[in-house]
Amino acid sequence: MSLHDTVEVNFDGLIGPSHNYGGMSDGNLASQGNAGEVSNPREAALQGLEKMRLLVKAGFVQGVLPPLERPNLGFLADAGFGGSDKQMIEAAAKSEPRLLKAAYSASSMWTANAATVSPSADTTDGRLHFSAANLSSMLHRSLEHPETTTTLATLFEDDGAFGVHGALPMHEDFSDEGAANHVRLCREHGGQGVELFVYGREAGESVTGFPARQTRLASESIARSHGLHAERTVLARQSAKAINAGAFHNDVVCVGTLDTLFFHEYAFEDTEGTLAALRDAAEGLFELKPVMVPDAEVPLADAIKSYLFNSQLLQWPGEDRLVLLAPTETQETDSTRAFCERMVEGNGPIGRVQYVDVRQSMRNGGGPACLRLRVVMTPDERASMHQGVLLDETKIDALQDVVRATYRDRLSVSDLADPAFAEECFAARAGLLSALGLEGLV
User: Fold this and answer.
1) Identified catalytic residue from 147, 177, 329, 381
2) Per-residue pLDDT tens over the stretch 367-405
3) Of 19, 165, 189, 249, which is the active-site residue?
């Protein structure tokens, strides 16, 4: 088996039928700015599936992760609501609508937050490791990790090939937001790489402004549990300036793949120190290619509004240079469009920008990169996982048929109070799981 046979598989989150604009994410400007607006779950899911189709047609190995069960009635029961499902929903809508919104949240669609992933080439035991993120900073997201762990353990159940770890302790010192604060760099996917963990605060540290969601302790703990080599692991602090401007995850200001790191001038507290540490860690493996976007050319506010960096950076089949799969908002923002045009005209590692419409996700603060979890896999690893979530166009068609038949094209936050909507969500998810051969997750 050649190193060239190992590929990066993107597992996109299938947007769930309860996709709504609840405005629950502190520090996420899009989520807060669109709070209370009417969403279109059907359009959201179809947009996500069309992005997946684009990559399948281009020759990528593309996977999908199903939505979690929503509403989370167990959470409502834990919050003290009793009786039938209908009674719990009606009581929560009347007395604690914030908790009902959390129970219905479709935020698991952003699978970049589902887990941190270390490929087998980087780990001491030679297994592919996943650590589900506890997402403890936000109530609605903190509900996800038990189901996420179950889903990952179901898809990657071969203990000889995979190590699936549950979430870190649910304490602020271990706050973990998954792969949104993690970048793997390498010469080629099958070779040993360098793993970059980006954190916003130390354990026990108080910070002002928007929440710094990732702690250094959480990143260190995951690196230990994955058995990473210390000399090939880098920890860097995200800049407070970026966090307080609305870059709630590092992937709002930085993305990387292979030997290329594409980032904003204000992505890191110590840019030169971070690049030096990466070069030291990469010594003997590859030569780092940093592409820094100056604030003078793309102001931080524009980078966050356009989600220039919350794009997928891909080794496109048949192309010599990398392709940036960016949201249409990047094209519509003058500074980011102009920068992309200049960038591809040069001779740097990024040779093309392709734009994709994921507006429904973007209005809640998630771009193309938020919607996918990157998993570097050997052919044997791909063969030993659950095959039903690996996509071709026929399977995408089947999923879109379920979406068109079961998802609403208009959803307001007030609709969550209707117990009948819960039954719609359960039926929709059951249809999706059946199409993926995952009926056991119902």
Assistant:
1) 177
2) 999 999 999 999 999 999 999 999 999 999 999 999 999
3) 249
How confident is the model at residue 24, as a pLDDT? 59
Within its chain, how far is the Cα of 78 from the centroid? 27
**CA distances (Å), 75 to each of 64, 80, 144, in order?**
25, 9, 11
The pLDDT value given to residue 31: 43
Whether 114 contacts 132, CB under 8 Å: yes
Q: Which of 186, 340, 370, 425 is catalytic?
A: 370
Q: What is the tens place of the pLDDT at every residue in 325-352?
A: 999 999 999 999 999 999 999 999 999 9
Instruction: Give catalytic status of residue 425 as yes or no.
Output: no
CA-to-CA dists, residue 269 to 100, 240, 416, 422, angstroms: 38, 7, 41, 44
CA–CA dist 107, 143 (Å, integer): 10
Q: Are 256 and 262 in contact (CB under 8 A)?
A: yes
Domains and CATH numbers, the chain: 3-70+105-233+358-441 (3.75.10.20)
* 96 among known catalytic residues: no
